[in-house]
Every structure is written in C-alpha cells, then in structure tokens.
Amino acid sequence: MPHAAPFTANNARIIAVGVSNGAGAVLQAAGVDCTQLLAGVVALAPNVNVPAAKGARPLYDYTTEAALLAPCALSAARFDTVPFARSQGKVAPSWPARCAALRARGMLHGADAAAQANDALEQLHAHGWDDAALATAASSTAFDVWRAVAVTYAAAYARSGTGSMPCGFRFSAHDTGGKPRPSTAAERAAWWADSSGIPPGAAVFIDESIAPDDATDPALRGLLCLRTLWTAQDATAKTVHASVAATAAQLPRKELPVWVIHGKEDGLLPIAFNADPYVDWLRSNGRAPIYWPIAHAQHFDAFLAFPGFGDRYVPLLPYGYAALDRMWAHLVNGAALEARAVPAASPRGASCRGRQR
After folding, report:
1. Which terminus of the chain faces fewer neighbouring Cβ atoms within 10 Å, N or C?
2. How far is residue 297's CA from residue 309's CA, in Å, rounded to a whole number?
3. Which element (helix H / strand E) includes 113?
C-alpha cells in the first residue's frame, strides 16, 4: 500500500517479471540489487548479455549477422514449407539477390543460388544458429525486423542520438508521397502509447541518407555498414563494443529465486545465445535457477494467429503465468519452490478451419 512507503526489503516483496528486453532488464536488476529489495525474478525469453558464458552472443552481433545472411540462408530448399519463408510457394526475389550480392563481394561461395544459400546456412550454423531458430527467424526476415533492430541499437550503442545516426540512417515521418517531413505534435504525443521504440511504426520510418550502391539489393550497403560496427576497430565500432560490454549481466545474490523461461524455437532471441548460457553461467557460479526451455515455443505469441504459425508453435506466456503463480505461492504462502520437470508442450497441428462438419 502507498502509505507503507518508503519500501524496503522488510516491508515489501517485489517479484520482478519481464518478457524479452524486459526480461533482460529484470535479470540486470537482479544483479545490481544491493538493497535486496527483490524477492523473486521471472524472466521470459530474456535478451541477456553474458560474455563470460560459452555460446553467449550479444544481440547486436547476431542481429547484424542475421540481417545479412538470413535472407540468403532461408532460400535453401529445407525451408520451403516454413511460414513467411515463401510467398505463394516462391522465395522472395530479394533473397536470392542477397545471395548473389554477397557472392560478388566474396562473402559467399557457390556457383548458383542454391549453393550460395547452403554456404550462408553453413556460416550461420558455425556461429551457433540451428534450423529451428532460423525457421522462426523467417518472420523477422520477412518483416525486416533485423534491420530495424540493428539501426536502432546502433544509434543507441554508438551514442549518436537520432540526429547523426551511424551508417547514414535516420528516422523520419513521411508525407503521402513517401518523402521525409517533420512529425506533427499529435504524432509525437502518440509515440509514448503507440510505439515499441523501434521504428518503423507510429508514423516513424527508417530512411537512408546515403544512396544504395547495389540496385538489386538496395538494403545491402547499410547492412554491411551496420555489421562493420561490430567487426571493425574504428572509433565508432569501439564505442559500440564498449556500450555492449556495459550491458553485461551481473550475478544475482545466491538466495534470490530466479526462474527463466525461453522458447526452444525462438528465432529473434535464440535460446542458444541467451537463456542457455545465462543459466549455465548461474549454475557454474553456485546459483540454482529454475529453467524451463519450452519445446515448440518461439518469441511472438501474437504471431500464432498467422496461417501456419499456430499449427507449429505453442504460446510462451502461459508458462510465464504458471511460474509467476508458483513464485507468488512460494514468497507469500511459503510453498516449496521446486525445480520441477520442464512442462511438455505440443503444437496443435493443422486447424479445423475450412473442413466440412
């Protein structure tokens, strides 16, 4: 109750709960909770940076890699039946074009699109991606999510602000002809309610002030530049690396209950780069987190309404609600917080829509 303020570990129990970036935030909070105000943590599909753990990769690294290679890799025949990887049974023309553009720059090998796609796939496999994550990453690739995330995070990590963003990117409102224009007061007021914080959205678009150098793949110039901010050694790249390093997770206190839940087929924040290494790191340092890697779960429960998605995947949030209920029962009612077996999960399969009764 408000009258009990100021809140301390003696008069308040706080369960920190988050999903995705929010899950990463509550794990960060757990690591810096010097006042011991947190009583428990539940993190779903966390975006968590654990450089000390085997297999861990920070978001900016694998996002800029996927932005370049995923369109080509997902052209491989093994993804022919994957939702968003094909439109009316065909690969988007821009995806084989990416293969050819990277081949021309010496970044891929292969005499034809199929061989180039397999080379891109082998590179991703070598860096920790598996086919399950890549299959759901087809949605992020089709919706241009990789570029949107990379552009936004590059500006944040380079500490450039939106006025001088790296690689010639900029955020703009558009007129009816698609040309940049000043945003209106009403649009700016709506950003707080309607925006995810990562354009495009809420009348904010991503533009490039530098002309593309490949007419067959106009996004490639900017994506190569964004990747260079991770692979190069110039001043801006060093700032990006320093900013990413500053986000590294810290160990929570030993007695703090931590429950981590992650979809095993998450294609946006792959489990192999996030929850798996984080939990291994906790355990190797004497912590005892409860960990539920959920089979057949991916990152976007909202996507389950799309054709094919609901057939293949299960929602992640119900497992988070179950964990939160048990964490509450433990902290408030004294129930044992047992590391029970990971719940089994089965996709529903093909729906009955369109069938005769």
Report:
1. C
2. 10
3. helix 113-126
List the beta bridge partners of residue 171. Answer: 206
Count the helix, strand and coil residues of the chain and give each as a percent rounded to the nearest 5. 45, 10, 45
85-139 per-position pLDDT tens digit = 998 889 999 999 999 999 999 999 999 999 999 999 999 999 999 999 999 999 9
Task: Estimate to the nearest angstrom the gap between the alpha carbon of 313 and the chain centroid.
Answer: 17
Rounded to whole angstroms, the Cα distance separating 7 from 23 reads 23
Q: Rounded to whole angstroms, how far apart are CA atoms 45 and 300?
A: 10
* Cα 174-179-184 angle, rounded to 5 deg: 35
| Sign of the C-alpha dihedral computed for residues 129, 59, 148 and 98 taken in this order | negative
Kindly state the tokens that stand for 240: 């990006």
Q: For the residues of 301-349, what is the DSSP string, one character each?
A: GGGGGSTTHHHH-B-SHHHHHHHHHHHHHHHHH------PPPPP-----
**Both 65 and 148 in a single domain?**
yes
What gap in Å lies between CA 270 and CA 226, rounded to an integer? Answer: 20
| pTM for this entry | 0.93
CB 298 within 8 A of CB 83: no
217 and 74 share a domain?
Answer: yes
Q: End of a domain among 228, 243, 258?
A: 243
Of residues 194 and 143, the one with the higher pLDDT is 143
Nearest to 150 by CA among 86, 106, 206, 190: 206
Active-site position among 20, 75, 139, 140? 20
Residue at which a domain ends, from 243, 261, 291: 243
Residue 150, both tokens: 């990379």
233 neighbors 268 (Cβ within 8 angstroms): no
Q: What percent of the chain has pLDDT over 90?
A: 78
20 given a catalytic annotation = yes
Q: What pLDDT sits at residue 220?
A: 97
Which pair of tokens denotes residue 18?
């988050």
Residue-number span of the structural domain to which 66 is assigned: 59-159+211-243
pLDDT of residue 34: 87
* pLDDT for 120: 98
Cα 351 to Cα 245: distance, rounded to the nearest angstrom: 45
Q: SS3 of 4, please? A: helix
Same domain, 237 and 131: yes
